[in-house]
Amino acid sequence: MFGILILAAFVIGSEWLVSRGVMPAYLIKARTGQTLWRALLSILVTVGLVGWLHLPAVIAIVVTIYFATIIANRYLQVFEAMERGKRG
Question: Is Transmembrane among this UniProt entry's keywords (predicted)?
Answer without folding.
Answer: yes
